[in-house]
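Good day; I would like, with your permission, to put a structural problem before you. The record follows directly beneath this note:
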Amino acid sequence: MLNTTYLPHALYSIAITSISIHLVGQKRAIVEDRARIAARISTLESVAGQLRDGKHLSLEELDRLQRLARPPSSSSAERVQPIREEIGWRETIFGRKRSLETEMSEYDRRDWEKVRKEIEKEA
């Protein structure tokens, strides 16, 4: 049995660990965003420098560089990023309530469908 004098310390350590893991993830995301933006800027600066110098760039090369410098579209960003949903403290501590569909086994579902079809035939 967990001693009640240590319970607050356990909760505090779990909270601090959770916050630190979250902050590490945020820090990595920020570093990746900065690197991506710096790469776009350097690509655009090189194109601008080449055009200022009067060097001829082919249309294919310009299109390729524009695609590299363009920010990712929202549709591709949505495919890469996981779906985020709000998770409350109650769900964190006590877990999620399971829906009826997830609790029913396959056999129970089949039996339920048979009974439902029989009732519909009688009515």
Q: What stands out?
A: The chain has a mean pLDDT of 78. The CA atoms of residues 88 and 95 lie 10 Å apart. Residues 7-52 form the longest helix (46 residues).
